[in-house]
Amino acid sequence: MMGHMDAAELIRSVPTDLFLGGEWVAAENGATFGVHDPATGEELARVADAGPGDAVRALDAAVAAGPAWAATPPRERAELLRAVWQKITDRADDFALLMTLEMGKALPESRSEVTYGAEFLRWFSEEAVRISGRYTPAPAGTGRVLVTKQPVGPCLAITPWNFPLAMGTRKIGPALAAGCTIIVKPASETPLTIQLLAQLFDEAGLPAGVLSVLPSSHASEVTGPLLEDPRLRKLTFTGSTEVGRTLAEKAGRSLLRTSLELGGNAPFVVFEDADLDAAVEGAVAAKLRNGGEACTAANRFHVHNSVREQFVAKLTERMASYKLGPGTEPDATLGPLVNEKQKKTVIELVQDAVSAGASVRLGGEAADGPGWFYPATVLDDVPHEARILKEEVFGPVAAVTGFDTEEEALAAANDTRYGLAAYIFTRDLDRALRVSHALETGIVGVNRGVVSDVAAPFGGIKDSGLGREGGTEGIEEFLETKYIALQ
Ligand SMILES: NC(=O)c1ccc[n+]([C@@H]2O[C@H](COP(=O)([O-])OP(=O)(O)OC[C@H]3O[C@@H](n4cnc5c(N)ncnc54)[C@H](O)[C@@H]3O)[C@@H](O)[C@H]2O)c1
Ligand SMILES: O=CCCC(=O)O
Q1: pTM, 2 dp
Q2: Can you tell me which family this protein belongs to (predicted)?
């Protein structure tokens, strides 16, 4: 276990050059950009600012390294992924502190993400040796069917700031397990975590060019040339629906294999027969995991009117117990939002709901002073037309509305362009299965407030994306299926 570094030592220890083709190099024009501490707004570090030329060089390296990596025995690929899982685990404290420093979330949230993010590498180290096809005589006796799986080829991964490690390993793990090479463009808010991950892959002996990392403050300029290059074979994007749509249009022109993990607007439905204490605990978990900055976050709470007052009172009490403060403070359980833009969005959505008639049961006012802090907030009686029921709040705000019948609850839950996660609390198994089937989402939590699991297929429908990550399904996004017709 590495010694525990303090924040300044840790920041200084993270490489800030580009990890490109197995080397650590400056950006083509020597440019750098600043990474800021959400708790103070102050600059934490400066990182190489990759340009389009760096991106093309990274793709050159990925193409050159591709055949040898694809031919590397699966067990060897597996052992390397497992070794990096171990390295992350050994440096869990460093990763947790680094994520809290650059993204803001409370340390317990970061520690939880380190375990979750590292696990994608262990999970896909095990999947690497289980890639299989099939063999069968053709039914008409006209020959034999041989089906095999091959790596899709060089990939581009574009990742968000809210789970800086896990959203990277959820792509890097299956890509490397499948025998693909991959270029990662992390969010400009949180490049340091992926920089540290790249260092561990480098230490583990990953062959040059298999992984390159391109931090950049010009995401579109850097990724544009790659999306137009026919040598690129896969785009895997996690981020907002707005950006995902733009990227899908570009990828469509090259008919790129594309995976999109996009925004969410999860309903949290509490039926009259629910275990109310369990529902409140589930609600707090679904709302405040990652400070509410999670695509799976419960955005809209639809509660049967017969239990709504009890539920809101209990939820308010539980959310009031969260301590707002810099994520590095030992007793903080709710950190700042990632940037000023995010804070302004949350303020706007709350003010819109209150203006439309919602009542504030907790919080509702942004904290003054430095940093982008917003308190845990509970709004009740939120009117149907309020923006907060239609837009992803991505902050610690619970918007509660009531219903009287299952049909009303289902109509409200599905009344959104998103379709990632949904949560239902009921003791009635028939109702749980009936409603789960009727919900227009890729994921349903039944009497659970946290659904994410490396062993499960993660993804959504409608405006929440295309494809699945994690589970046995996740590696298929990085494989092509080939049919060999035999006599
Ligand atoms: N479904 C999921 O698994 C999942 C997970 C995490 C976050 N998200 C979603 O991501 C959003 C928050 O993350 P965010 O603010 O980083 O999202 P974002 O879409 O602003 O940015 C995501 C990534 O895309 C890059 N990017 C932005 N514009 C680009 C462009 N024109 N071309 C190429 N790259 C571009 C960014 O630099 C970043 O690396 C939320 O909507 C959240 O729901 C979804
Ligand atoms: O923000 C997106 C959710 C990340 C996860 O829970 O896998």
Answers
A1: 0.97
A2: Belongs to the aldehyde dehydrogenase family.
Q: What is the CATH superfamily name and number for domain 7-262+464-486?
A: Aldehyde Dehydrogenase; Chain A, domain 1 (3.40.605.10)
ipTM > 0.90 (yes/no): yes
Q: Which residues are catalytic?
A: 261
In the chain, where does the domain assigned CATH 3.40.309.10 lie? 266-446
For residue 459, the CA-to-ligand 2 centroid distance in Å is 9
1-8 own/partner pairs: CB under 8 Å, 24+ apart = 1/90, 2/90, 2/91, 2/93, 2/94, 4/93, 4/94, 5/94, 5/97, 7/97, 7/101, 7/328
**Scanning the structure block, which residue is given the tokens 């009287």?**
404
User: Candidates 49, 190, 222, 240: which one to mutate for ligand 1, based on the most atoms within 8 Å of Cβ?
Assistant: 240
> What number of helices (H) and strands (E) belong to the chain?
14, 20
Summarize pLDDT for 368-414 with one digit per residue, the tens: 889 999 999 999 999 999 999 999 999 999 999 999 999 999 999 99
Taking the C-alpha atoms of residue 374 and residue 105, their distance in angstroms, rounded to an integer, is 12
303 CA to centre of ligand 2 in angstroms: 24
CATH class of 266-446: alpha beta
